[in-house]
Specification:
Layout lengths: L15 E3 L2 E3 L6 E5 L6 E6 L3 H16 L1 H4 L3 H17 L1 H12 L3 H20 L9 E2 L8 E9 L2 E5 L5 H15 L2 E5 L6 H13 L6 E3 L4 H9 L5 E5 L2 H11 L5 E5 L4 E5 L5 H13 L9 E7 L3 H14 L18 H16 L3 E4 L14 E4 L6 H4 L6 E7 L5 H6 L3 E2 L1 E5 L3 H10 L4 E4 L14 E2 L2 E2 L8 H4 E9 L2
Parallel strand pairs: 7-8, 7-10, 8-9, 10-11, 12-13, 12-18, 13-16, 15-16, 18-19
Antiparallel strand pairs: 1-2, 3-4, 5-6, 6-22, 11-21, 14-15, 17-20
Helix pairs in contact: 3-5, 3-7, 4-5, 5-6, 10-11
This protein binds nicotinamide-adenine-dinucleotide.
Length: about 500
Amino acid sequence: MPMPAQAAVRLPPSLNFINGDWQDDTAAERIEVRDPATEALIGQIPRSTPAAVDRAVKAAQAAFENPAWRDLPLLARERLIHRFADLLEANAQEMAQIESLDNGKPVMFSGMLDVPYSVAWLRYFAGWPTKLHGKSLTPAIHGPEHHCYTLREPVGVVGLIVPWNFPLVLAVWKIAPALAAGCTIVLKPAEQTPYSALRLAQLADEAGFPKGVFNVVLGDGVTGQAIVDHPGIAKISFTGSTPVGKRILSSVARDLKRVTLELGGKSPTVILPDADLSTAIPGAAQAVFVNSGQICFAGTRLFAPRKVFDQVLEGIAGVGASFKIGAGLEPDTMLGPVISERQADSVMAKMQAGIKAGATVFSGGQRLSRPGYFIEPTILVTEDAQNPAFREELFGPVLTATPYDDIDDIAAMANDSDYGLAAHIYTRELSAAHRLARKIQAGTIWINTQLAPDPAIPFGGFKQSGWGRENGEDVFSHYLESKSVIAKIS
Ligand code: NAD
């Protein structure tokens, strides 16, 4: 594939997409969107006002009541979602380029992972509308003259708020089940990465979803808060940082909106003494450096046996150093920039705080002196579980490594975190792996593999990594309400 120049990537308009139309919010201030690889301005989006959010919610409410959506036969809903997937697949290269320009991620990965995964998510969830149904029930204390059943009804208009690290994938993780359930949508992408969501909305429109089913409102936390506070929204599905998740939770307490929260992580990679290091080393390196470490379930805390510790770290550092650093749109780039100047400053400051508190730098540790927000793959070593680099989510290409002597200490060391999103275990002894999997407090445990979410497998966090699960059948408990109907027959 020839390298597309930045200027050759066609971006959708920097406007809200409401009720099937591009709409400016003329009252709104503008937010600059920059290419993280060059710092060049690529667009300016509105910080949409509560009035624009209200227009989007009203359009979604009308669409929810519209018989063209509400009464659409389930197989027709399935067909619509498949058509949406077909269009995303047909425009895959363009979407991969938009994502790489906007986010900085290597086009090699957005083309191989982000876009095909998003298509797969839509196809998986397209199969669900015909399988979502209530139950026929036999009452326990009332007599047989009662006929009882449950209905599973879409909750209504859902507010979907996503971060910048996987703008397309994380939006589709929410859009696909919401549409399959029959909800209507107000989506707010992150202010740093608005364009794949806008292109998705265009494709949904082209697929034939009734106007107002899928709306996109642009803006930052101010706009996000207006969505959270809008009384016409029945449910918020949020992916982002733990502090913002907590703020949303306190806001929805006012009207008891349904809410699911996919939040931060500080996931362990545990290498057991018998592990095959030829699998564990590249696995541990990919788990922390892919997407420049901006993955919520990245394996950012490494635990390796002391006797192989240096060998493991040299191996991981070697894999990191082999990743070609560059702009996402260059076809051979394997490690792009982090998302923004602010994020680069935050990663460097947290790294420095860890070093000041006693962590040592095994490799990397520098921001590259070139335009763009590039940080070297970095390994810090600490045996202090209170070190801030061990405790805090850095959300950059930084691994904190800790040696261990006694395998019996591992579960407690891995669980010594406020987070509980995921864990990676490397071993050849299956019973040890499954024993440890039961002890680790995390929503997903990978054994001898890494970074492989699947639409059929529930994903979400223990502890401060969130509430609820995305994916699989579990996700529908958040997009459907259960209604019990009891009738006296005689
Ligand atoms: P963030 O919380 O700052 O922002 C996330 C989204 O929320 C953005 O769209 C932002 O505009 C919006 N927002 C900000 N303040 C808001 C408010 N008061 N009300 C409503 N919306 C608001 O997070 P970020 O920095 O964009 O993303 C990185 C974080 O996301 C990391 O902590 C990462 O671990 C987490 N994350 C979690 C998962 C998961 O599945 N658990 C996946 C990806 C990222």
